[in-house]
C-alpha cells in the first residue's frame, strides 16, 4: 500500500503518452487505483488531462479518478495558495504534469504541507524532465 512506501519520484524521458502508459501499468501492478491529476498551465496540459481520461475511461480496471487540480503558480510567491490547493487533493497518488522549474516550487510546497513523505506517491510527467543531470532538490 502507499503507506508502506516512501515518496516516489518517477522520471521518464519519453513522450507524455508513453510515460502515462507506463505509469498506469505501474498503478495497475500495485493496485493503486485511486489517483488525482495535478497540472500547471504548462503547454500540453490539456492533452495530458485528456489522455488520462482516455486511459481510464477505456479500461476494465475500476480506476477512481479523483479529479484534476490545475495550479496557477503566478502571484503566489510564498506558496500559500499552492500549499492549500495541494492539501485539497484527496488521493495519495498524484500524477503531476509541469515544467522542471514548476516541479521545484510544487515539491517545496508539498513538503511544507506534509504531502511529500511516506504515504504520498508522485509521478512527474513532462516533456522536458528527462535527460537532466539532477532531480529537483525537494
From TrEMBL:
Major location category of this protein: membrane
Record keywords, A-Z: Membrane, Transmembrane, Transmembrane helix
A Pfam family of this chain: ANF_receptor
GO cellular component: membrane
Compartments where found: Membrane
Database matches in InterPro entries: ANF_lig-bd_rcpt (IPR001828), Peripla_BP_I (IPR028082)
Domain Receptor ligand binding region: 7-125
Protein name (record): NMDE4 protein
Gene name as annotated: Grin2d
